[in-house]
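Re: the 491-residue chain
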Amino acid sequence: MITTFIKHELKAFWRSKNTGKSVAIRIVMAILILYLFINVLVAGIFLDLALDKIFPDDDLVKSFCGIILIYFLFDLLMRLQLQELPTLRVQPYLHLPIKRNTLVRYLAITAVFSVFNLWPFVLFMPFVFKVVAADLGAIVALAFVLAITGLTILNNYLALYIKRRSNLNGWLFLIVAAVLILITTADFKWHLYSLHNISYLFFGRLLHTPALAIIPLALGLVMYYFNFLYLKQNLYLEELTAHKVKSYKSSTDIPFLNRFGRVGDLAANEIKLMLRNKRPRSALIMGLFFMFYGLIFYTNAAYGEGFKIFVGMFMTGIFIISYGQFMFSWQGSHFDGLLVSKISYSDFVKAKYLIFTVISTIAFLLTTPYVYFGWKVLLIHFIMYLWNIGINTTIVLFFANRNFKRIDLSKGASFNWEGVGATQLLISFPLLITPYIFYGPFAIFKHGDIGLAILAIIAVIFILTRNYWIKQLEADFYSKRYQIAQGFRNK
C-alpha cells in the first residue's frame, strides 16, 4: 500500500500545472543541498583537527563526546524552523477500505527521509571511524553510531511532534524555541553550566559501557510512537476541528484586544494567522533571535552612535520589516472575501498598526537589558521604537498597496521565495535610509544629540497624526484594490 501512496504522490506532482516551476526549484535546491553536504563532509573529515585546536588540553575522544549534545540542541532548533512536515492528502482515502494504521504509518515513516537526518552522519561518522574505531575498537564505535542514530530519530520526531501540536496551539512553538534559546544562552553567555560537560557525562560512559547506546535509540522509538498516536487520533477532519475549538478561544475572548472593538477582533484574527502558519510564524520567531543583535555591535567600541541607531531600529522593528514587507500577501488567498465583506479598510489598517505597536513594544521591553552598555543606548532604542511605530509602520503599509504577489500559507518557510518582488527591494531603502537623512547632517557636525531629538519629534508627530495617515492609506488602497486582487488571483 505504501508503494501505491508513493505512486499517487508522484502522479499528483507531475500532473500539477506548476510542475515546471517545481522541478526548477527542486534542481536548485538539490544543487544547494549537495554543496552544503560537501562542506559538512569536509568539516567531518577534519573534525579531529578542529577539536584539537578548540580543546587543546582535552583528549580528542573526550572533546568529541562533549560536542554531541550541543550539536543536537542546535539541530532541534534548526529543525523547528526549517524542517517540513511530511504530508499526504488523506481525504480521498478515508472512505476506502484502507486501515488507518497504514495511512498513519506512511506519514510517520516518510518523515525519516529528510536531509536533516543525514547531517549528523556526514559530520560525525568520519571521526567515529577514523579516531574512535581506531583507538577504542569496533564495539565502542558501533555504540556511538547507535547513539547518534537514536538522537537523530529523537530530534526528527520531536520536531515534527512540536510543529504538529503548534498547528493547534501556536504558543507551544514559541515556548519551545524560547526554552532552547535560554538553554544555550545560559551556557555560552551566562556560563551557568557547561553543556560540554553534561554531554560528556553520558557519551563518555559509552567508552566503558557501550550498551548505554540503547537509551537514545529507545527514546527515538518512543518519540516515533508518540507521533504515530497523535497522527492516528487526528486523522479525521472532525477530530482536528474539535481540537481546534478547545485549543483556541474566539478573538473576542482576548481581554487586551476587547477594548479595541472591531479593530481588536481583526488584530486577534491576524495573530492567529501568524501562530497557525509556518511562514508568518517564522517572522515572529526571527524577532526573538534578533534580540541578541546588539551583542555584536555594543561589545565592539569601533561601532559609533550611528550604528546604534541602526541596531535600535532593527531590534525594535524587525517584525515590522520582516512581516510587513509582505503585508496583504498574507491574506492573498482570501483577499476577494475581504473586498466584498463589511470590513472597513480603515479598521483593517488600524488593526495592522495595533499589531505592529504591540509587538514592537514587547521587542523594546526585551531590549531594555542593553542599558548595561549605557543609558544612551536605552534612549536610542526608545527613540527608534517610536520611529518604528510612527513612521516605518506607515511606510510599510504604503508599499503594501503596491504589493500584488500572493503567498500560499500552506507552504513552508524554508527556501520559500513566494511573494518576493520589486516591492520588497524598494521598501528596504526608505526603512533603512530615512532615519539617517534627518540624523546624518547633525552627526557630521558633532551634534548627534540634536539629530536624535529631531528623530523623536518626527516620530511623535507621526504617531499623533496617525488618523490622517490612515485616511491617506485608505484612499490609496481604494485606487489600487482591484490591481491587488488581480495579482493575488494569479497563482
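DSSP finds 23 helices and no strands in the chain.
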